[in-house]
Design brief:
The chain has helices spanning 2-6, 37-51, 67-79, 88-92, 110-116, 120-127, 141-149, 172-176, 253-262, 296-299, 328-335, and strands at residues 19-23, 31-35, 58-60, 83-85, 105-108, 131-134, 154-160, 165-169, 184-185, 189-193, 198-203, 219-228, 234-239, 244-246, 249-251, 270-276, 280-288, 311-315. The chain is α/β, with parallel strands linked by helices. It has two domains: 2-237, ANL, N-terminal domain (Rossmann fold); 243-335, GMP Synthetase, Chain A, domain 3. A hairpin with a 7-residue loop joins strand 1 and strand 2 (31-35).
């Protein structure tokens, strides 16, 4: 693993070995992104430089087959740090890791952060961490403000399996100073936004193609829509393939979800488009069946009329993957007429 940090030039011979990292599960098609020592090493070096970490000690509640869980292990091993695998259910139940020396980090999805913030003991533990990385989905405004008020050192971030995880992130100091974005690009990555709003990533951590194919391309067009401000900070506006077209108007599921969460009526919610003979697609808001029934009028008051859900559906089996992301393809199959 030391070579991941020391080889500045990377590999020139790709026959030396590669690793297939699973991706695409939320879209219903599983693929394996090829990574190697050069791509993983670039990701580690950029990560450490961005956050000023010489040694990474990580509490890890994410599965090792997911790129975020994998990279937590790689960062620790490459920098001589400590890796502590901790069961998410134990942490959610209030069983926090015992105190340890040194600076520690953790990676969470927004829903995990939200659930931990319901428990004072978990909040106290979160305060003890050097950095709390939040990714895998949009950090809604009310959750961000609650975390800042609690003094949590959040680093909202953006990354992909194809980029060996993180390529942009806010530093905790920026977050606590009221910045609200995915931050600037890490040193090993270059970000741009195409004319159609699609986020593009270039850099040394970019994958070598999807198995069994190989690719030498050094720029990757994502499925995410975004904007980059004058400071170079990235804001994700939603997914291109998730955009709902209803009655001829485009609706961003992420924006609708943010408004519904902000109403206080939902602890968890996912917005999807389902076929509709009148509208083309109907905006549908789904929530776990074990939650209380929302007040639909109050929940949607901040939304323009065309973006207000036509239906609110209680879902018995809430489809999330091991990292906590919603499996929207599975959800659509459950609620589509």
């Amino acid at each position: 693993m030391e070579a991941l940090m020391s080889r500045a030039g990377g590999w020139t011979n790709r026959d030396e070995g590669w690793l297939g990292v699973r991706t695409g599960g939320t879209g219903g098609v599983v693929k394996f992104a090829r990574h190697d020592q050069a791509t993983l090493g670039a990701a580690v070096r950029g990560f450490c430089a961005h956050f000023g970490l010489g040694r990474v000690n990580a509490v890890d509640v994410l599965p090792p087959h997911h790129v975020s869980g994998l990279m937590a292990r790689v960062r620790c091993a490459a920098t001589g740090g400590l890796h502590l695998a901790w069961d998410w259910k134990r942490l959610e139940a209030g069983e926090t890791p015992p105190p340890r020396e040194g600076d520690w980090v953790v990676s969470l999805v927004p829903t995990q952060l939200h659930r931990l913030m319901q428990t004072p003991r978990a909040v106290d533990w979160l305060r003890s961490l050097r950095v709390i990385f939040v990714g895998g989905g949009p950090l809604w405004a009310e959750l961000a403000e609650a975390a800042a008020l609690a003094g949590l050192r959040l680093a909202p971030s953006y990354g992909l399996t194809e980029t060996a995880a993180m390529v942009a992130a806010l530093r905790p100091e920026e977050f606590l100073a009221c910045a609200r974005s995915c931050g600037a690009a890490l040193p090993h990555a270059r970000l741009s936004v195409a004319g159609d709003g699609v986020v593009q990533v270039a850099g040394d951590s970019l994958f070598r193609g999807y198995w069994p194919e190989q690719s030498a391309a050094r720029m990757f067009a994502t499925e995410d829509l975004g904007a980059i401000d004058a400071r170079g900070h990235l804001t994700i506006l939603g997914r291109r393939d998730a955009m709902i077209v209803t009655g001829g108007k485009k609706v961003s599921p992420a924006e609708v979800e943010a408004a519904l969460r902000g109403s206080g009526e939902f602890e968890d919610v996912a917005v999807i488009g389902v076929p509709d003979p009148e509208w083309g697609e109907a905006v549908v808001a789904c929530y776990p069946e074990d939650g209380r029934a929302p007040d639909a009028t109050r929940a949607a008051v901040a939304l323009p009329p065309h973006a207000r859900p036509k239906r609110y559906v209680a879902v018995r089996k809430w489809p999330r993957n091991a990292q906590g992301k919603i499996d929207r393809a599975a959800l659509r199959r459950q609620v589509a007429p």
